[in-house]
Design brief:
Mean pLDDT: 80
Strand content: under 5%
Helix content: 40-55%
Distance between the termini: 65 Å
Shape: globular
Length: about 90
């Protein structure tokens, strides 16, 4: 099959956040095993298990996924915000 740059965008993600997203999607939506996803996206099995653990923990706590970038306050977009400190 000829190289297709559009498909390769998804098959070979170039940035860390997209790579994490695609690997997690492989497990949670496509039904792949953690071992398969780790190998396909270049993670060690132990490192990928930790990524899955952190992702599940954040989801259960109602927080945004850990692969979103942090904002200026150190939190993630859409995350819980602390009320301003009392004077």
């Amino acid at each position: 099959m000829a190289e297709d740059p559009v498909r390769d965008f998804f098959r070979r993600p170039s940035c860390v956040a997209q790579r994490q997203y695609e690997a997690l999607r492989c497990v949670f939506l496509d039904g792949g095993s953690q071992k398969q996803a780790a190998q396909r996206f270049g993670y060690s099995y132990a490192a990928f298990r930790q990524l899955v653990h952190n992702f599940r923990r954040s989801g259960r706590a109602g927080e945004p996924p850990p692969l979103l970038p942090r904002n200026a306050e150190g939190g993630r977009p859409g995350g819980r915000r602390r009320p301003p400190a009392s004077p």
